[in-house]
Every structure is written in structure tokens, then in C-alpha cells.
Design goal:
Blueprint lengths: L1 H23 L11 E10 L6 E13 L2 E5 L3 E6 L2 E7 L2 E4 L5 E3 L2 E5 L4 E5 L7 E4 L3 E11 L2 E10 L6 E9 L17
Length: 188
């Protein structure tokens, strides 16, 4: 009877050792999902706002954890009801949830009003373009035939009708204009 109990205990000890060995083994990392990389892309984004679309061209688009990073020779354009509204140039743009766009810095040309905006600059913080709200940047430089200057903590709608900014330093020309419209296809 002691031998039977001994065999039983030995079997139990081996089973316990096997379970502990399996539990002590470090878990294996899940297989890395290959990222999706597209080269030479033309990409159209249709945000929720009715009649608005963004068109981009770039050297590549990469999907990373549910976000799309568009980069290399990037240019973008926003169309409202089929008409070109603004152009966007940036080293890269990340398309986030809600179709919002994030860039390290950007240059924007708004046709109506002939506005040129430098949104942020290298090392100054990111630019956020919210589809339902407009631009947000830590710094902006604005140039137009009737206005030029810069400000901090810039927020504005796409038409520059509602602007919030800190430490604004703007000039308005005494004779009506600093010069002609420098935005291709723009009008004052």
C-alpha cells in the first residue's frame, strides 16, 4: 500500500512539475502584424462634413496601429462642394480617428482671401487639423495682400473667420495691400 501511495505521489509530483514548467515559461509574443505600405499614393479622405473631401498625393502611405501616415513629397487639397478650398503641404500627415490630421508643421494656402499660413515650424510642436473645427498650431505666420504677421497658440476655422491666438503681432497696410495675391488661383 505504501508503494501504491508512493507511485501516486510520484505521478502527482511529476504532473505538478510539468505544470509549473509550462507556467514558468515566458509567454511568446504574438506574431507581429505586417504593416501595410503603399508607394506612390493618391489618397482621398471623406470626412463626416457633407460635401468636403481631402485629396493627397505622396511617395508612401503606411498603416501603423490603425493610423495612416502619409509622407514623402506630400501635398494635399481640401475641396468643398467640388471646388478647391485650400492646399496643404507638409513633410507628413497622420490621419487619426475622426479623420483629423496631425503634422509636425505645415504650409497652407487658402484661396479665398489669398492667405498663406505657416503652421508651426520644426521643433515648435505639432499642427492639428480638426475636420469639424479647423486649424490648431502652437505658432502661425500669416501672409495675405491685406495682412501679415504671426501669433502663438493659434486656432481658427478653415475660412479664418473665427481666429483665437496669443501674443498676436499683425500689420495691416496703410494703402490697402502689401502686394498682389501670391496664392495660385486665389482671390482677395
Amino acid at each position: 500500500m505504501v508503494r501504491g501511495v508512493g507511485r501516486y505521489l510520484l505521478s502527482l509530483a511529476l504532473l505538478l512539475a510539468l505544470v509549473l514548467a509550462l507556467l514558468a515559461r515566458p509567454p511568446q509574443a504574438p506574431e507581429a502584424r505586417p504593416e501595410v505600405r503603399l508607394l506612390g499614393v493618391e489618397f482621398t479622405l471623406f470626412p463626416e462634413e457633407k460635401g468636403v473631401e481631402w485629396r493627397f498625393t505622396a511617395q508612401e502611405m503606411v498603416e501603423e496601429k490603425g493610423l495612416f501616415r502619409i509622407r514623402g513629397g506630400l501635398s494635399g487639397a481640401r475641396y468643398v462642394e467640388g471646388r478647391l478650398d485650400l492646399r496643404l503641404f507638409a513633410p507628413e500627415v497622420v490621419v487619426e480617428a475622426g479623420d483629423n490630421l496631425r503634422a509636425p508643421y505645415a504650409r497652407v494656402e487658402i484661396l479665398k482671401g489669398c492667405y498663406r499660413l505657416e503652421l508651426s515650424a520644426p521643433g515648435r510642436g505639432e499642427v492639428l487639423i480638426r475636420q469639424k473645427e479647423g486649424f490648431a498650431a502652437p505658432w502661425v505666420r500669416i501672409e495675405a495682400p491685406n495682412l501679415r504677421g504671426e501669433a502663438l497658440d493659434f486656432r481658427s476655422d478653415f475660412a479664418l473667420q473665427r481666429i483665437e491666438a496669443g501674443s498676436p503681432r499683425f500689420e495691416f497696410p496703410a494703402g490697402g495691400a502689401f502686394g498682389p495675391c501670391a496664392v495660385e488661383g486665389g482671390s482677395s
